[in-house]
Amino acid sequence: MIADSDVQVWLETVQSSPPSIVVPYIQSDHNLALHYRVRVVQEGHNGKSVIGQAGAVNVLPNTPTALSQFRISRQPESRCEIEITLTGSHIQPENHRFECPS
């Protein structure tokens, strides 16, 4: 087991026009086979919306790997969060949270 997995997680956003395109990426110093879950939760005056996607990915050392791609139309005065959960045989389960792009 890799005690410190050195997994980096980040979002790239293309905001050329609404809705924004969001691509979550991961990268590691090690070769890893991971399962991921991406959830987007948006709450506002019109209620709550939850979308999600899950899958498996092989991460090559020092190579950014896209997990998925999705579009977000953030509503004014809403709370919006992106949660990425990673699990695998060589890492402890990890949760990463990001605020949705404006």
Describe the structure.
- There is one protein chain.
- The chain has 102 residues and is mostly beta strands.
- Helices cover 0% and strands 64% of the residues.
- The protein is built from no helices and eight strands.
- The strands form two sheets. Strands 1, 2, 5 and 6 form a four-stranded antiparallel beta sheet that branches. Strands 4-3-7-8 form a four-stranded antiparallel beta sheet, with no helix packed on it.
- It is elongated.
- The N and C termini lie far apart (38 Å).
What is the typical, i.e. mean, pLDDT? 88
Strand content: over 45%
Q: Over the alpha carbons, how many angstroms does the gyration radius reach?
A: 15 Å
**Could you tell me the number of beta strands?**
8
Q: Name the structural class.
A: mainly beta
User: How far apart are the termini?
Assistant: 38 Å
Low-pLDDT stretches = none
Number of alpha- plus pi-helical segments: 0
Helix fraction bin: under 10%
Largest sheet, if any? Answer: 4 strands, antiparallel
